[in-house]
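[audit] Reproducing an earlier prediction to check determinism. Same input, same settings, fresh worker. If the tokens differ from the archived copy the diff job will pick it up downstream; this log only records the rerun itself.
[audit] input (175 residues):
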Amino acid sequence: MKPTKPMQWLAALLAGTGLLLPQSVLAQSPDAGSYRVTGGIGDVRLAEDGAFRGAVLDSEGRPLADCHVVVLHDATPIAKVKTDAQGRFEVLGVRSGVHQVAAGKVVSTYRIWKAGTAPPAASEQVMVVAGDQAVRGVLEGALFLVSTPEVMAAVVGGGVATAIALDNNDHEASS
């Protein structure tokens, strides 16, 4: 069977539409219960009294009060605390080694050092950004119209219906 011009046009339209779609439309959205793991490992030195200190901020840099913070070692929780009104937390009894800090839906990894053994670049406390993710871009104009799967399905369906109608019209005209 020889492809007709409307069908070729439809195939080209669908291929072009797929190339023009924003990646957020094509990507699978993360599970609502999932955690966002931050990249890299930070070096932190314990205070002289052995306390592991930090602060939890939202994406705009404001302190998050009453935020649950869990310190883990080898995927095992070793401490659970809540932040104070200024978003600060403190955990006593943390040993040196690699630990994860979970706050909100964010998990960050740190190498914790005893006072006096930490490298010079090690910080005195951690800062975890646990608020909603910052918006990195905004869809504007025509791209906003195809940013949801429902709208995209309607666009593709309209394209298919148009191609079929044009193909049927060509067959009726040649009869």
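[audit] rerun output stored. Observation attached for the diff report: The longest helix spans residues 149-174.
[audit] end
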